[in-house]
Specification:
CATH class of the largest domain: Alpha Beta
Helix content: 40-55%
Mean pLDDT: 90
CATH topology of the largest domain: Rossmann fold
CATH superfamily of the largest domain: Glycogen Phosphorylase B
CATH architecture of the largest domain: 3-Layer(aba) Sandwich
Largest sheet: 6 strands, parallel
Radius of gyration: 22 Å
Oligomer: single chain
Strand content: 5-15%
Shape: globular
Number of strands: 12
Low-confidence stretches: 386-400
Strand order of the largest sheet: 2-1-3-4-5-6
Number of domains: 2
Structural class: alpha/beta
Length: 400
């Protein structure tokens, strides 16, 4: 048991599974499992949005794009002010953990070291996610300046993929020895025993599982093409879509099941999702843009090989031929169908891939490994093994 004390700086409640898809929740849970005293250092009421809404309305009226409030100086300063009382009441911690909280830490001075983690950098977001294209250039630059400052002042910056880690070094001139790659885990409360996963009955029909809320960005149309191509080459298949509604007539694809919403925080719906993972043969997500993909970790936990795209940080979780296959962004349903048919029709090949997929979860893609590795890295960097618990700056941090 470590006995360390870590303060989490985040504007959203890390105990809430809806915050950043539950990732901070599972980080905190894993650290506590390894004996770390974790406390949330953050205002229980987030900084007000009124001024941000006024600025956004004005910019839209003038046709100047949108304002990214959560990566702005306005938010950073509001966060510092709202945190002053929290600083004074939280007491001693050995270090700060800031998950996807670059703006929160950018304008604050700490007496204790900071460990920052995120799955992407803003320079990568800028030309990658379509939702970011409408943001005003000055707003983007402001967010990048804040993120650069956050990474500069962090003693350790952890990213789940080499793609993001390389960006921190290249775009922000981060010191390479203070940047590391540490894969994230599966956001699951429970995972069936390995024996149950590997001994499940073989399906006669090839069952494909698609889980995503954004049909277009997650490559839903390619998933349907894959289903059609499998039919053409004589492989009977079925596709289950979870999290969104495909923009197609229901009668066009008789072998498609759609489940619009599944909330993992609801015990009954969580159980339903678990059964879906157990019942399917492949996880199919031909995503067009992805910072990492926690869902691929979840698929590996259930021994499901993933078929996806070599884009963004996906290669940080999927290793080609080990827990799935990475296709080119230009690949269509034909390429995906050929890979699926080749594996599904070869029992030994499929079983071997299923075993190695679960191995990836057991040894690399779970939060226990993440927590153990974070503690070990922080000790090597003298972040946690100094034996001194520094008090967080009583003044609430200097705003620059």
């Amino acid at each position: 048991m470590s006995g360390y004390r870590i303060g989490v700086v985040l504007s959203r409640d890390p105990e809430n599974k809806h915050s950043w898809s539950g990732t901070p929740f599972y980080m905190v849970r894993a650290l506590r499992k390894h004996g770390v005293d974790v406390r949330w250092i953050g205002p229980k009421t987030p900084p007000p949005l009124l001024r941000a809404k006024v600025v956004n309305r004005l910019m839209k009226t003038l046709g100047r794009g949108t304002f990214d409030y959560y990566h702005s100086k306005m938010f950073a300063k509001s966060y510092v002010r709202s945190l002053r009382k929290e600083y004074q009441s939280e007491g001693l911690v050995d270090c700060i953990l800031a998950p996807a909280a670059s703006t929160e830490i950018a304008r604050m001075n700490f007496e204790c070291p900071i460990v920052y983690t995120s799955d992407i950098t803003l320079p990568l977001v800028r030309d990658y996610y379509a939702d970011y294209f409408g943001i005003a250039y000055w707003s983007i630059r402001q967010g990048e300046a804040l993120e650069a400052e956050a990474i500069r002042k962090s003693r350790l910056s952890l990213f789940p993929s080499q793609w993001a880690a390389t960006s921190a070094i290249r775009d922000y001139m981060a010191e390479p020895d203070r940047v590391a790659v540490l894969p994230y885990g599966a956001n699951l409360d429970e995972v069936p025993p390995r024996e149950q996963i590997l001994n499940k009955a073989r399906n006669k029909v090839c069952k494909l599982l698609f889980v995503g809320v954004d049909w277009v960005r997650k490559g839903g149309s390619i998933a349907l093409e894959t289903l059609e191509e499998l039919r053409k080459i004589g492989v009977e298949s079925h596709l289950t879509v979870v999290g969104c509604i495909p923009p197609i007539p229901a009668s066009k694809y008789a072998n498609v099941t759609v489940i619009p919403v599944l909330d993992k925080t609801d015990p009954g719906q969580y159980k339903q999702l678990e059964q879906l993972y157990l019942a399917h043969d492949f996880f199919l997500l031909p995503t067009r843009a992805e910072a990492y993909g926690i869902v691929f970790c979840e698929a590996s936990a259930f021994g499901l090989p993933s078929l996806t795209t070599a884009t963004g940080g996906v290669s940080g979780v999927i290793r080609h031929g080990i827990n799935g296959y990475l296709c080119d962004v230009q690949s269509g349903g034909i390429e995906y169908a050929r890979i699926i048919a080749d594996v599904f029709l070869d029992r030994r090949k499929y079983e071997s891939l299923m075993i190695s997929s679960r191995d990836e979860y057991d040894h690399r893609l779970n939060w226990d490994v993440w927590a153990e590795s974070l503690i070990a890295m922080a000790e090597r960097q003298s972040i946690l093994n100094s034996g001194i618990s520094d008090r967080i700056n009583q003044s609430g941090g200097a705003v620059r």
